[in-house]
Design goal:
Length: 451
């Protein structure tokens, strides 16, 4: 991959965002273009200076601006970079851009400034992608993680993982190249290195589940028998009446969903039809949709009626929800008289709440955050939020699993080494160490102009 030697330009600020618009120029001709448009000679680096912008032919004044010059290699792209700060009219910025193109630049492709920064070695691919994460952040938590990625926490974790893979590969290749010097090629050291490398890969993958939930949000399904108070709890969690609530069992016959932001994460709550032996066709369809909603959920709130005793339907709910992360909730604790049967029935940790009186609702929200996202993992350690990174790690983990299986089953060491090389290649795609042009085009095509 070769860095282009032409000069690019684009508007770096979206329309209507403030009193200043920025036209950015990067490349060998950036200084010359600026001198032609502004009439200023010998621009000093890293100093914001006033200037007058003229058309490329010098005949028309366009604006009174500020200009700042960043000299290569101490710039974002590693090239000479110039920014023209004009008044915040998008029409004016577009006019200045047109004159910049007439003066010798070409229009930048989406993400081309950041792509040049990557190709110049200023940032790696994970840091480049963190730029779009910052721009698209919809919550404080997403922004905080994007900043950590820009600072290189993902890059550092992947670098360490590659070092582990290389150490393992070195041992394998030594066993292949000098078998007479190694008493037993399948040494304990090779096994230990392989298990350690796979464990680190799995750890990053486990954290990536939390990361993807932070990016896309968590889907929380409320499941329970009819009249357990699911709709009331649903409304209480949303803090407004979204679902119809009555004392008539089976009022909710279809799934109802609504989203809220809590602690920087988007939670989509789904109220479902109650689980029971419904007699009507519509009710049966609602129950089937409940089962499907549970399958598609990230977390299940299994809701039980504390004012009643456990029923066959409650047993069915426990069976349906055991395969998913979840919280057992005893609702209507304001009407409960004896919880001993429920303690025996649930045989584990549960939370008593009252949707009517809002008892323990804040505690429930906190548990939902911990179960779905994992507060401790967010506050410490590396959290992968990028689906591309997760896919590459998954393929690397599968390759290491193949290497481990081959080592146990007695496969030749060159086959084991081939699997490790594949894993090394997959993690290299994450930081861009060996990313193909197609991968780079896909990554940077998601950027907007000017970035």
């Amino acid at each position: 991959m070769i860095l282009s030697n032409d000069t690019i330009a684009a508007i770096a600020t979206p329309p209507g965002t403030g009193g200043v618009a920025i036209v950015r120029i990067s490349g060998a001709s950036a200084r010359g273009i600026a001198e032609r448009l502004t009439g200023r000679q010998n621009l000093s680096a890293n100093l914001l200076k006033p200037c007058v912008i003229h058309s490329a032919d010098g005949r028309q004044k366009l604006d009174d601006c500020m200009v700042v010059f960043f000299q290569a290699p101490r710039s974002y792209t590693g090239e000479d970079v110039l920014e023209l700060h004009c008044h915040g009219s998008h029409f004016l910025a577009q006019r200045i851009l047109e004159e910049t193109l007439k003066a010798g630049a070409r229009l930048a492709a989406p993400g081309e400034f950041t792509k040049r920064a990557f190709l110049a070695g200023k940032i790696d691919l994970t840091q480049a992608e963190s730029v779009t994460e910052m721009l698209n952040a919809g919550s404080e938590l997403q922004l905080r993680l994007a900043l950590k990625h820009l600072d290189g926490d993902v890059a550092g974790a992947i670098k360490k993982l590659r070092q582990d893979f290389l150490a393992l590969l070195a041992e394998l290749e030594a066993a292949l190249d000098y078998p007479e010097e190694i008493e037993n090629p399948r040494t304990q050291k090779i096994r230990e290195l392989l298990l350690s490398a796979r464990a680190e890969t799995v750890k990053l993958l486990e954290n990536s589940r939390q990361g993807l939930l932070i990016q896309s949000g968590a889907r929380i399904v409320l499941a329970g028998h009819t009249n357990a108070g699911k709709s009331s709890l649903f409304n209480t969690l949303l803090q407004y009446d979204r679902a119809i609530v009555t004392d008539i069992a089976g009022t909710t016959t279809d799934t109802v969903s609504e989203a809220v932001i809590f602690q920087g994460v988007r939670f989509t709550f789904v109220d479902t039809a109650g689980i029971r032996d419904g007699k009507g066709t519509i009710e049966q369809l609602g129950i089937e949709r409940t089962r499907a909603a549970i399958e598609e959920s990230d977390v299940v709130l299994a809701v039980f009626d504390a004012s009643e005793t456990p029923t066959a339907e409650d047993t069915e709910i426990l069976k349906l929800t055991t395969a998913k992360p979840g919280i057992k909730v005893l609702n209507k604790d304001d009407r409960a008289t004896d919880l001993s049967k429920w303690k025996k029935f649930l045989s584990g940790e549960f939370l008593t709440v009252s949707a009517k009186n809002r008892t323990n609702i804040d505690a429930l929200r906190g548990q939902l955050f911990d179960v779905s996202v994992g507060a401790q993992k967010v506050s410490s350690g590396v959290v992968i939020t990028n689906a591309r990174h997760m896919g590459a790690l998954t393929r690397a983990q599968e390759a290491l699993h193949g290497a481990e299986t081959g080592l146990i089953s007695g496969a030749t060491l060159d086959c084991v080494a081939a699997d490790v090389r594949s894993a090394l290649g997959f993690v290299g795609e994450i930081t861009g160490t060996n990313a193909s042009e197609a991968v780079l085009d896909e990554v940077f095509s998601r950027f907007c102009l000017g970035k």
